[in-house]
Design goal:
Elements: H1 2-33, H2 42-46, E1 50-59, E2 62-65, E3 70-73, H3 88-99, E4 103-108, E5 119-125, E6 128-129
Parallel strand pairs: 3-5
Antiparallel strand pairs: 1-2, 1-4, 2-3, 4-5, 5-6
């Protein structure tokens, strides 16, 4: 009787392992042929790119468009020129050389304007993405 119990434990272990492998294989095959669909980000569905001329550069991360709107670059933070922070003039000059009086492709963020009335956006200018 003791031998049969050992065999039964071995058989149970084998069957359990076999069933786990079978479930993992079936799940893998299902996911391969039915991939999980991810919804696009709200930014890509709600906002369409628009083109606008840059009227002037305020500082390294803020510009004014020809329609008078103030725009702050999304994801970029440079030293503030109004407070004479170190590197602010360099950042502002770089931004001027990059976008001032040029047409840019603008993709607005879905967030509201900031406390200064600027909206956030990403830009592209030729092969430069900001």
């Amino acid at each position: 009787m003791k031998i049969n119990k050992k065999v039964n434990k071995k058989n149970r272990s084998f069957i359990f392992t076999y069933l786990i492998l079978l479930v993992i294989t079936a799940l893998s095959i299902y996911l391969f042929f039915n991939p999980v669909k991810v919804n696009p980000s709200p930014m890509s569905t709600k906002n369409k790119p628009e083109f606008s001329m840059v009227k002037r550069v305020i500082d390294g991360d803020t510009i004014e468009l020809e329609n008078g709107e103030m725009v702050r670059y999304l994801g970029i933070d440079t030293p503030e020129i109004q407070q004479k922070e170190c590197g602010s003039e360099e950042a502002s000059n770089f931004n001027k050389n990059l976008v001032e009086n040029k047409k840019v492709r603008l993709l607005r963020d879905i967030t509201d304007k900031d406390s200064y009335g600027r909206f956030y956006a990403m830009f592209s200018l030729r092969m430069v993405n900001l």
